């Protein structure tokens, strides 16, 4: 069973700074099926990135994804106040079919 | 605009049952992959179940044998029948559409809350 480990658990930054979030898989996975989501308090998750590096519809270009194999990264180039939220990576696998990382909380410093 | 609206959550005693519904707008449920994802209070996301357009269904081990996913094509609605509920099933339950080529969740409902407690 593949496990996705996100780091750090909490990231404290200021608006305007660059955020780098990591998602590491316990074994090599297909980048075609690696996605990132943003979740704000009291809201459903929102798809940000799919296929490791493609932005979903309507997602600002300050969000970018990269990586392959076991290591994937979500980068937010210049943080806006509305970007402070919890971020999850997700992978399609064999069992269970859909796996989420445990999340990274991005908080205002 | 694509919309997913869940309903059916509530308070139920351990061992009880509940059926969640998810009504879709602006797309056809039966022609898409549809899923349930849950989130326990203060915790992360956990995939629960999926039904593919062809009708195949799959479940997380934690709910296998207790939960059943289904759909009603005439109502364009997805369901999750939950039986033998335990306190560990307390969570917000989201329905979500899956993009087949990327196997991710592109549209989500607002969620319906399930609390299992005596």
Task: Break the fold down into its secondary structure elements and pairings.
The complex is a heterodimer of chains A (109) and B (118).
Chain A lengths: L3 E4 L2 E4 L5 E11 L4 E6 L6 E5 L3 E2 L7 E14 L9 E7 L5 E3 L3 E5 L1
Parallel strand pairs in A: 2-10
Antiparallel strand pairs in A: 1-3, 3-7, 4-5, 4-8, 5-6, 8-9, 8-10
Chain B lengths: L2 E5 L2 E3 L5 E8 L7 E7 L5 E7 L5 E3 L7 E6 L4 E6 L8 E9 L4 E5 L3 E5 L2
Parallel strand pairs in B: 2-11
Antiparallel strand pairs in B: 1-3, 3-8, 4-5, 4-9, 5-6, 7-8, 9-10, 9-11
Quick overview of this protein structure:
With 109 residues, chain A is mainly beta.
What do you see in this structure?
- The complex is a heterodimer of chains A (109) and B (118).
- Chain A has strands at residues 4-7, 10-13, 19-29, 34-39, 46-50, 54-55, 63-76, 86-92, 98-100, 104-108.
- Chain A is an all-beta fold.
- In chain A, strands 2, 4, 5, 6, 8, 9 and 10 form a seven-stranded mixed β-sheet that branches. Chain A has a three-stranded antiparallel β-sheet with strand order 1-3-7, with no helix packed on it.
- Chain A is globular.
- The relative contact order of chain A is 0.33.
- With 118 residues, chain B is mainly β.
- In chain B, the strands form two sheets. In chain B, strands 2, 4, 5, 6, 9, 10 and 11 form a seven-stranded mixed β-sheet that branches. Chain B has a four-stranded antiparallel β-sheet with strand order 1-3-8-7, with no helix packed on it.
- In chain B, β9 and β10 (104-108) form a beta hairpin.
- Chains A and B meet through β4, β5, β8 and β9 of A and β5 and β10 of B.
């Amino acid at each position: 069973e593949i496990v996705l480990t996100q780091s750090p658990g909490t990231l404290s930054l200021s608006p305007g700074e660059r955020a780098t979030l990591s998602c590491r898989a316990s074994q090599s996975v297909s980048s075609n099926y690696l996605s990132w989501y943003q979740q704000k308090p009291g809201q459903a998750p929102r798809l940000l990135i799919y296929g490791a590096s493609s932005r979903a519809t309507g997602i600002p270009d300050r969000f970018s994804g990269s990586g392959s194999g076991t290591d994937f990264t979500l980068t937010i180039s210049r943080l806006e106040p509305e970007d402070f939220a919890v971020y999850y990576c997700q992978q399609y696998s064999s069992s269970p079919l859909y796996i989420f990382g445990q999340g990274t909380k991005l908080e205002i410093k | 605009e694509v919309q997913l609206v869940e309903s059916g959550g509530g308070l139920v005693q351990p061992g009880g049952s509940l059926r969640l519904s998810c009504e879709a707008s602006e797309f056809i449920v039966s022609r898409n992959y549809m899923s349930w994802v849950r989130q326990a209070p203060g915790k992360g996301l956990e995939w629960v179940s999926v039904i593919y357009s062809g009708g195949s269904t799959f479940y997380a081990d934690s709910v296998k044998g207790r939960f059943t996913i289904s759909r009603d094509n005439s109502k364009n609605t997805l369901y999750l029948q939950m039986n033998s509920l335990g306190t560990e099933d307390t969570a917000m339950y989201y329905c979500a559409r899956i993009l087949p080529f990327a196997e991710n969740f592109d549209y989500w409902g607002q969620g319906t809350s399930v609390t299992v407690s005596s």
